[in-house]
Write a structure and sequence with these properties.
Blueprint lengths: L18 H10 L7 E7 L6 E7 L2 E7 L8 H15 L9 E5 L9 E4 L13 H4 L2 H19 L17 H15 L14 H10 L8 E3 L8 E3 L6 E4 L6 E3 L2 H9 L13 H6 L5 H9 L9 H24 L5 H22 L1
Antiparallel strand pairs: 1-2, 2-3, 3-5, 4-5, 6-9, 7-8
Helix pairs in contact: 4-7, 4-9, 5-10, 6-10, 7-10, 10-11
Length: about 350
């Protein structure tokens, strides 16, 4: 078989991606054959592996879980490929899946191939056009809001995603779900437990002020600007990436997430989006909410509650890396950095509650 003659690129460990096996599989999918060229590891996300390459005159990005798979890694990749496939043709700005392999036995992990995205990630790059024009940066923020509003307005059942999540009781589950997650971090030896001022107060406030259940929809789940790529020639979102936290629930949490992660220049959190966070110029929360309403018929009157929930949930998610770093399972510098952001998120939550 043609694929079996493939030379393994020196840049890639065969245990991560065996290109001979992938080549044979691609042949079986009817994709163009030939040698793999231009193989290049890509950044973006701290857990999953992405490799860009060209074969048979077509460009691809392969995405799979980390080299040392976690329990849910393969399922995350399968879910990502499923939702991206469902979104194809809807107009939502997301990567386009070319082919997916849910059989982890093939290369040791589930994976999928997608089309490369032409655009930049503001965490690692800020072109001159965007760096020098505050209005461009403001429009970047508004384009990101529009993207999640359009996503949350889709009919997920019509797209075949009725069983993609558990929307019943979605909001009611959030506080106990994430407090339980936080409690589980104590299994990391060396982690002294959460040192998060006002943790219980925020949880109590969320439970006491919880909005009534709303119409379910699709959430990206982690829609901060570092998980978006933007066009080089303007402020528009090119694609939302890293869909591993996507689900079906209350899409207004995505709006709260975007507001919660718009850190002010000079804060630790602002460095999540590199130069963009340093120069600022993004829209204010009030403008973001008003812009969301232009593309959605959802009631945004309680957007503050969703923003507090986003601070609470994301803060606990980031604390997980701090706990693992305390146990020597992650770099200490990264753990300390993310813990500082957790404290900023809870400080923001307290201000919003007052």
């Amino acid at each position: 078989m043609l694929g079996m003659s493939v030379v393994q690129p020196v840049e890639v460990d065969r245990d991560v991606v065996d290109f001979a096996i992938v080549g044979k599989w691609m042949d079986e999918q009817g994709l163009p054959g030939g040698e793999f060229t231009g193989v290049k590891p890509l950044g973006g996300g701290t857990q999953n592996i992405m490799l860009r390459f060209t074969r048979g005159g077509r460009d691809y990005v392969l995405r799979r879980g980390p080299k040392h798979l976690r329990t849910a890694s393969n399922n995350v990749i399968r879910r990502e490929s499923r939702i991206l496939g469902a979104l194809d043709g809807t107009g939502i700005r997301a990567p386009k899946v070319i082919a997916a392999c849910g059989d982890e036995a093939l290369i040791g992990a589930a994976f999928y191939l997608m089309e490369p995205i032409i655009g930049f990630n503001p965490q690692t790059e800020l072109p001159e056009l965007h760096a020098n024009d505050p209005e461009i940066r403001r429009q970047m923020g508004l384009s990101a809001v529009e993207a999640i509003a359009r996503l949350g307005s889709l009919d997920h059942e019509a797209l075949g995603l009725a069983d993609y999540g558990k929307p019943e009781g979605f909001l009611e589950r959030q506080v106990p779900r994430w407090l339980s997650e936080l409690e589980g971090y104590s299994a990391n030896e060396g982690y002294a437990g959460p040192q998060i001022p006002g943790l219980e107060r925020v949880g109590d406030w969320l439970d006491r002020n919880r909005p009534a259940p709303a119409r379910p929809g699709i959430l990206h789940g982690d829609c901060h600007l570092a998980n978006m790529m933007f066009r080089y020639d303007g402020p528009e979102v090119a694609a939302m990436v890293d869909w591993e936290m996507s689900t079906i629930g209350d899409p207004l949490l995505d709006l709260g997430w975007q507001i919660a992660t718009r850190f002010e220049p000079g804060t630790t959190g602002a460095s999540l989006v590199g130069s963009l966070g340093a120069v600022g110029g993004l829209p204010a929360p009030e403008e973001m909410a008003a812009h969301y309403a232009k593309f959605s018929d959802r009631d945004i009157s309680q957007v503050t509650w969703y923003t507090v929930l986003a601070c609470f949930k994301l803060g606990i998610v980031l604390e997980g890396t701090y706990a693992r770093a305390s146990a020597g399972k992650a770099p200490k510098q990264v753990g300390d950095f993310l813990h500082a952001i957790t404290l900023e998120l809870f400080e923001k939550a307290h201000k919003l509650m007052d």
